[in-house]
Specification:
Its EC number is 1.-.-.-. One of its GO terms (molecular function) is FMN binding. The protein is of the alpha/beta class. It has a single domain, classed as Flavodoxin domain (Rossmann fold, 3-Layer(aba) Sandwich). It is 45% helix and 16% strand. It is built from nine helices and eight strands. The strands form two sheets. Strands 1, 2, 3, 4, 5 and 6 form a six-stranded parallel sheet that branches. The protein has a two-stranded antiparallel sheet with strand order 7-8. The two termini are 18 Å apart. The mean pLDDT is 96. The structure holds ligand FNR.
Length: 188
């Protein structure tokens, strides 16, 4: 099983990139997380699209289309979705004829990290209309919020907090189980 993990920040020391790395290391056996970010993606402009899809967008679209599930690790900006990650997802939804291949029916899990106290809860809820619009299958079975992430996450892509690490491990195994159930459903 291959999960595409996208960290929604361009920042070198991104807490969300560190969270993705920590989650990848906790994935259950037989489940590999490909870690990507959103670098190289310009601000969406239909004139630019008409000239041809940027390579970074094509590459993310293909990675998503070939994955068994999508793990979005999203910062929270002003209690909503962060513009740069929304921009990347918007690019990936182009042209509309590709939405079926790239997104529709694909299992998705959402999580995120913040130095603040609320763990990106507001941003995670704010993603829901977009998931619905793209026809993604959101996994509702687990929730993972990472507040105080400057202390909770170590530079080496590990959790500093054992309880949080255990919650994250369960989050990853729950999502992998969901993907397995979904793919069995598709075969039948
Ligand atoms: C933030 N940040 C933030 N944090 C939060 O918990 N709730 C919020 O509403 C906001 N709003 C917000 C707006 C803008 C414009 C910025 C730049 C930042 C702080 C944010 O969580 C913090 O910068 C994280 O470190 C961003 O994630 P990365 O880049 O570390 O992955």
């Amino acid at each position: 099983m291959r999960i595409l993990g996208i960290a929604g920040s361009l920042r070198k020391a991104s807490l969300n990139r560190q969270l993705l790395s920590a989650l990848a290391s906790l994935a259950p056996e037989g489940c590999e997380v490909e870690q990507r970010d959103i670098s190289g993606i310009p601000v969406y402009d239909q004139d630019l699209e008409d000239e041809g899809m940027p390579t970074a967008v094509e590459s993310l679209k293909e990675a998503c289309a070939q994955s068994d599930g999508l793990l979005l690790v999203s910062p929270e900006y002003n209690q909503g979705v962060p513009g740069p990650l929304k921009n990347a997802i918007d690019w990936m939804s182009r042209p509309p004829a590709d939405i079926g291949r790239v997104f529709r029916g694909r299992p998705v899990a959402i999580t995120g990290a913040t130095p603040g106290p609320n763990g990106t809860r507001a941003a995670q809820y704010a993603w829901l209309p977009t998931f619905r619009g793209l026809g993604l299958q959101l996994w509702f079975g687990g929730q993972l919020y990472v507040p105080g992430a400057t202390n909770a996450l170590g530079d080496s892509g590990r959790f500093n907090d054992e309880k949080l690490e255990e919650r994250a491990r369960q989050f990853m195994s729950g999502f992998a189980d969901f993907i397995r159930v979904q793919s069995v459903g598709q075969v039948q």
